Structure formats: structure tokens, C-alpha cells
Amino acid sequence: MQKGDDFYTIADDANAYYAIATEYLDSLKIKYTNNVDDKIIGYKINGEFVHIPKNKSSWYVIFFNDNYYKTLDLVNIRNEYTKFFNQNFTKENSGNSEMKRIIDSISGKQYFLVNNLECDLNNDSLPDQIITFGNNEEIDAQNPDTKIAPIVVLIKKNNKKYNILVNDKIYPNNFADAFKKVVVKNSYFTIELSNEIPDQYISSKYITFKYDLILKKIFLFKYGKNTDWSNGKKDKRLCTNKNFGEILYENFNANNIAEKCN
Description:
By secondary structure, the protein is α+β, with helices and mostly antiparallel strands. The protein has helices at 5-27, 77-92, 97-107, 241-244; strands at 42-45, 48-51, 60-65, 68-73, 111-119, 128-135, 148-156, 162-172, 178-185, 188-197, 201-212, 217-229, 234-240.
């Protein structure tokens, strides 16, 4: 039996979406596995096997976290991934009403939760948080509101409240940079951004902040950008607070930091 042209069109589309999905998961350092359609997939809970039924499509993905799962097609996996794990993060932290109130008050209808990282920036043994949001709207060059997404630092206080520091000028910014991850080491944290224009360049930005234990404020410590051009040329830029002076976390602006790095 011959397959119609529609089959090959669908297969080509599925392969393209699969490539986008795996590239996105690889960028997050997420472990995943590929399975053929004849395998039975499921998980155990309380000693009993729970079968995950197949999706109607032959090309689909299964998200799983803490006995929750969701099957969906490969289209728009970036938003679906963050929404799924946002829901599970909310369930896991439902007992922390103050954090949930802060997240809800910031997200509203414009943003969704992308990443949450627990840390101890001020070395007081109380859990601080660095929370990254995403913009629900695709970037529109004519609409400044689509070029922002807050990254919020919560410094825990003894009374279960938080000092809240918000910056919405880190990404997506005027360059349409994408959030990659946050890395914390002691009182320092680095926000990594990425960007790519096919057949032109791939760039990575590393924005490092430091919590000042004396002033009890967060300052920009270091800014770096690496660019790999399609012609094989590589550019690197690195500047520190010796170049740009004192910049508070909440005043940092990714759109103009390069001008201050001379």
C-alpha cells in the first residue's frame, strides 16, 4: 500500500518539531528517552503499575514529575513544558502561602513561571529564591511589553516574609535573548541567556550578581558575552564592576550594559 503525500508532509513536520523539542530539552540539560510505539509506558505508585495510554498522534511527548504526567503533541513544547512544571511547583509549594501570593501577584495574565531556584545568598541558613518568569506573548518589535519578563529574587526574613527584588529588563530585552538557566555559588548567581540567528551567529550572555553581606544589597558583579559567528570567527567580551561601577540588581538593564563596558 502506498502512503499518500499527506503522510510525508506530516512526517516532515513531526521531524521538525522533534528537532526543536530535543534542542530545547538539551539546552535545559534535561534527561529524556526515546521509545518506540509498541512499548508499554507507565510508572509505579504504592506498588501498583499505572499505565500511561498512547496519544492519538504517532509523534508525541510525555511529561512526568512526582506521579503527575501529561501526554501532548510536539508543537509549542517550550510553553507546555514550563506550564506543566509550573503546576507541579505550585502543588509542591502550596504550603508556602507567602511565596504563592508573591508569584500570583507578579505573574497575573502576562507571565508564567519558568524556573525557581532555592539558594542562600546571604548565608543566614534561611531559604532564598530566584524565580524566573516568561512572557505569555511572542516578542513583537513594536510592543515593548513583549520584551520583558521578570526575574525575582526573594530574600527570606525570620518572620516568614521576603525582601522582594524585581528586574524585568534582563530578558527577552531588545535583542530577543532567551533564558537558559541560573547558576548559584555562595553569594553569587549568574543568569545565562542565549540567542541565535541561523546562518549568522550563536551567542551566550553570562550576567553575574553578588549579594553584599554588609550593605545587604545585590550588585552587578560581572557581565560576559560569547559570540560564535557562522564564518568561524569568535568574539568574547568580559567586563566587571571596575568597568561599569555599582549597579543594583533592580537597576540592571540588558539593553544598555554593553555601552558601560568600555
